[in-house]
Amino acid sequence: MTFAASDPRGIALSMSDAAFGYAGETRVRSLTLEVPEGAAVALIGPNGSGKSTLLRGVLGLAELTAGSIRVLGTSPDRARRGVGSLPQADTRDASLPVTLRQVVTMGLYRSRGALRPIGRAGRAAVDGSLDRVGLREFAGRRFGELSGGQQQRGILARALVANPRLLLLDEPFNGLDRENREALLHLVRELRDEGRTVLVSTHDLEIAQQACTHVLLLASGHRPGEPGHPAAFGPLDEALTLDAVQHAFQDTTVELDQHTVTTTRETEV
Ligand SMILES: Nc1ncnc2c1ncn2[C@@H]1O[C@H](COP(=O)(O)OP(=O)(O)OP(=O)(O)O)[C@@H](O)[C@H]1O
């Protein structure tokens, strides 16, 4: 199924001065943005700037400590059925004795409930999702025996199986070899072309340029422990400027348009 963008396009995600955090403590703040349906947003920022926290906020798993958020026209909790997510690789437990097919099938539980039989349509959705990431032949393998790149694609198949309108991918390119990276870039473009909305966090500006329509650059707080905040948001060619990158990546080296940019930390706050 595709979600062809109507004209004018719907808004998949909006935030108004939103802030997210844990136990009442804000970790990323001042988020005001509208993401049109069918956009692919690269979420870029240094370690600790709040990329994962923001993605968890969209899922309703991090606390909204200020402002407001609407996901697919409703609250994060109500929107969950329409949202697929790929958490960061280090948060997964690959030791469970389950097959790849079982892992992907878990992606259907949210929409059907774990106790209802999956049925023919569900099995077809699982097969389709495995085909999509090129892993159908590995369906019966134990998940923990697959390579890191294959596990990543397996989790992506789990995120896709319930036909989500919004996909949240947390650092999906980390640790991928060139072949897996190209396949994933291709898939992100394909999902976008189908009218789905994608938010993908990455440290890699090249990925943003190759697969995304929009960029949200996050900067760390001015002092250690302060929450991250946006340095820029908008269509890629407007928002991904050297100034914004320098603001976001203070005191680090990044690459933009094949140029290596070394930025220095501002002494003023
Ligand atoms: N579950 C949690 N409970 C409390 N604080 C947390 C939790 N998860 C993250 N944080 C804190 O929130 C801040 C932002 O972390 P977050 O993981 O969102 O950043 P990030 O930009 O995704 O970083 P990275 O690029 O390293 O993954 C950090 O100070 C981190 O210590």
UniProtKB/TrEMBL annotation:
Name assigned to this protein: ABC transporter ATP-binding protein
UniProt-listed InterPro entries: AAA+_ATPase (IPR003593), ABC_transporter-like_ATP-bd (IPR003439), Metal_Ion_Import_ABC (IPR050153), P-loop_NTPase (IPR027417)
Organism listed in the record: Leucobacter triazinivorans
Highest taxon, organism lineage: Bacteria
Similarity section: Belongs to the ABC transporter superfamily.
Sequence intervals crossing the membrane: none
Keyword terms: ATP-binding, Nucleotide-binding, Transport
Molecular function terms, GO-annotated: ATP binding; ATP hydrolysis activity
CDD domains: ABC_Metallic_Cations
SUPFAM superfamilies: P-loop containing nucleoside triphosphate hydrolases
Family matches, as PROSITE patterns: ABC_TRANSPORTER_2
The keyword Protein biosynthesis belongs to this UniProt entry's keyword annotation: no
ABC transporter domain mapped to chain residues: 13-245
A Pfam match: ABC_tran
